[in-house]
Recover the amino acids of this structure.
């Protein structure tokens, strides 16, 4: 019996090591994919702008770029810390992450309203006031997911999934700027659809590691996808256009 118990403990230990390895590969891979997508999307208009454009950016756009880039860098650092089992540092950085997330929402909303005033929307997209449902919707979904992520910070399984999905929710802006003709041609249909593909690895990871989907993945993923399908119809309503016109008059 003692030999059997020792054998079971060894099997459990090996399973635990394998599970941690899969988690490390998945979350690190997702963080890298976010970094690559954001850099590729904003390379011409922000990171490498001097090589492509001579016009200076508005101060609010510089602030937006700095704040949102900081979130991507922080997410990557947090994933790396967990992979290295430095959860003590991870938790301390989480306080800064909460403050940064709040700042992102303020800056994101402000930037969207300022840009609506100058009619700066991607090709194939609706009018500036109707288009506001896209960035403001991103901020609303991000706020819900990141808020839930911090609320469930003591439940690692839910917390890490919600933080990934919160980051997925702000990717459409980067995806819309990727240098692919079909994105410009199909507009929101293309950049929302491509952004939603980042949810698929999350679902597959759940199935491969748990044998079933995690509630946080399902509910968070549904929130993102459903919100994407509603943005354009809502943006074309008279009620939204009136509300958007009222909002932009303050900027």
């Amino acid at each position: 019996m003692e030999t059997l118990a020792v054998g079971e403990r060894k099997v459990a230990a090996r399973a635990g090591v394998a599970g941690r390895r899969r988690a490390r590969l998945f979350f690190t891979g997702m963080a890298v994919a976010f970094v690559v997508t954001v850099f590729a999307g904003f390379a011409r208009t922000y990171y490498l702008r001097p090589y492509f454009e001579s016009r200076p950016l508005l101060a609010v756009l510089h602030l937006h770029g700095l704040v949102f880039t900081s979130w991507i860098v922080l997410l990557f650092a947090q994933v790396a810390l967990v992979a290295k089992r430095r959860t003590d540092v991870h938790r301390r950085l989480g306080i800064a992450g909460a403050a940064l997330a709040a700042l992102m929402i303020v800056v994101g909303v402000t930037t969207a309203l300022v840009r609506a005033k100058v009619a700066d929307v991607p090709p194939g997209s609706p009018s500036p006031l109707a288009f506001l449902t896209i960035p403001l919707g991103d901020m609303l979904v991000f706020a819900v997911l990141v808020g839930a992520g911090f609320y469930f910070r003591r439940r690692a399984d839910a917390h890490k999934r919600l933080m990934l999905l919160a980051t997925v929710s702000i990717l459409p802006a980067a995806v819309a700027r990727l240098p692919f003709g079909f994105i410009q041609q199909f507009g929101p249909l293309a950049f929302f659809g491509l952004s939603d593909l980042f949810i698929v690895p999350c679902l597959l990871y759940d199935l491969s590691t748990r044998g079933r989907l995690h509630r946080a993945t399902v509910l968070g993923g549904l929130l993102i996808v459903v919100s994407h399908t509603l943005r354009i119809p809502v943006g074309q309503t008279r009620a939204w256009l009136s509300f958007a016109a009222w909002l932009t008059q303050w900027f």
Observations:
- Residues 16-248 form one domain.
- The first helix runs from residue 2 to 47.
